[in-house]
Amino acid sequence: MHLTVAMEGVNDRTLAQQARQFQLAPAALSHFYLDPQRARSGLVLGYGKYLCFSLFSRALRTLNRLIAQHRRA
Q: Could you give the dihedral angle defined by the CA atoms of residues 47, 52, 54 and 60, in that order, rounded to the nearest 10 degrees?
């Protein structure tokens, strides 16, 4: 199961790469567009592996911190 989150003003490829340092594996939404000129920035989040809500919640908090850092930069 996946959730797509569109975000403007964020380099989604860099964000996805940094998330891997925290054992998270979101995919950059822009990667799925055939036309780079029309690509939207965002993340594709897989959440089917989280059997426990507290683990999923922790992962989302980590992603939220990373997104906030990217928006300030």
A: 0
Query: pLDDT: is 67 or 52 the higher one?
Result: 67
pLDDT digits (tens, 9 = 90+) for 30-55: 999 999 999 999 999 987 776 677 77
Alpha helix locations (H) across 1-73? 12-19, 53-72
For 61, the domain range is 2-72
| Single-letter amino acid code for the residue at 66 | L
Number of domains making up the chain: 1
The answer to whether 12 touches 43, Cβ cutoff 8 Å, is yes
